[in-house]
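Hello Y.,

Per our agreement to keep a running log of every chain we model this quarter, I'm adding this entry. I've kept the format consistent with earlier entries: sequence first, then predicted structure.
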Amino acid sequence: MELNPTKNPKSPRPPAASVRRLREAMEKASAGGGKPRLDAQKARGKFTARERIHYLLDEGSFQELDLLVGTRAADFGLKDKEIPGDGVITGFGQVGGREVCVYAQDFTVLGGSLGMAHAQKICKIMDLAYENRVPVIGLLDSGGARIQEGVDSLDGYAEIFYRNVKCSGVIPQISVILGPCAGGAVYSPALTDFVFMVDGISHMFVTGPDVVRAATGEEVSFDGLGGSEAHAGKSGVCHFVAKSEPDCFRQVRELVSYLPQSRWEKPPRVANPDPIRRSVPLLEKMCDLDPRRPYRIHHIIWQIADEHKFFEVQSIYAKNIVTGFCRMGGEVVGVVANNPAHLAGALDINASDKAARFIRMLNAFNIPVLTLVDVPGYWPGVQQEHGGIIRHGAKILHAYAEATVPKITVILRKAYGGAYIAMSSKHMRGDFNFALPCAEIAVMGPAGAIEILYSRELKACKTDEERAALRAKLTAEYAAKFASPYQTASTGSIDEVIEPSQLRHKVARALRFLKEKRVAGSHENRGNIPL
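Predicted structure for the entry above:
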């Protein structure tokens, strides 16, 4: 038989019966929970699962897998229900021309609840991502475990959690919360590297408001208990908050642009129109600032980053330390910086956790660390001590000490005590440690030091004016002799005291030198455990 599709084009041959059957099955499976449920999803201000994939991925790149998979459970009427795709869409596509695996829970199908087949589909796509060394992105919108399937649904969650840990530090894992995420379901996002939420539609909690009310008598709303504000600003579970779903997917795409495909690769380099020798004269004002005067560290980061762009991570959690991504000379850099505009930039429990996990993520995915230091110490107080500042503060020490990626540190103003050590000091194996001429590096601030060292002399003063004059004189002498960057540079603990206007060039040049850095044993996988 001759097969010639161009023959008699005016009378196209109708599709074969088997092809028609396939198309009908695919159309039915793609319809989600049907028009009424899709309309209800829209009425809540939410996109459908397929629309979300469309917004996230490059146009035309999505290849769906397991479209026709369905539940094998038969109890409680499940065998009589249409459950397209068992409530989850899985497949692979591209973000910015780079391959990713993706799954999207469909709330219009049994509330996106997770049954065994649903879990198996997610596990299959995670295994595919792990074996092919590409990121995996989960779009979560689910009522939780499917009660009709009993323990099978719980076992399904366990299989997902196991894979989250297996993939940790191996491939980037991103969770996007686009509806409810409750009970055991919350632990999968918590095990991933980054969590996104959208104002007004995203909720995460182990127990809902009704259970909280029954158990404790506390009255709380869904947003108050597990909304984006609660998790981005208080619990630290959420890394990014968006005002809308399109804004959320834009942020996800931007994040992916800073990440490698896996721990075996480096982040993508981009063409850099911003000269690395660009002078930053504004930074000379740093040397005129009162050491106690607050300022936003963001202004420093924007000045030195390529095209003044900085993609901040966890922007409203533990604001005393700032973490995020920028590029310098076209290369991706992870920034960890004290922020004097909040708690004077001191390290506390939350800031230590935030910085430590970010540093460990950078180390897992071959991203250099730039540390900008302006820290008066660890935040004092009974609440901090009893809350475990010793244990939590040690995490940042551990993270820097184990990191084998390039580490560049710049001391801007203050670096006192244990916090000086913690913020990637030379003896924590910083590769290049720089300081501005105005930097103060000491066991403690000059004002506090002279109160201890010269307490007798100060007490001996007969008048307050005499005491103030002596205090000012001793403070200046101590600062010049013991807190000067030149004194630290003389011991090799600082590699160079640099001109403020040359900060961008010095850091970019150091990064270029360190780009082929290799440390024995650094190829070993280190998981990104939630701290």
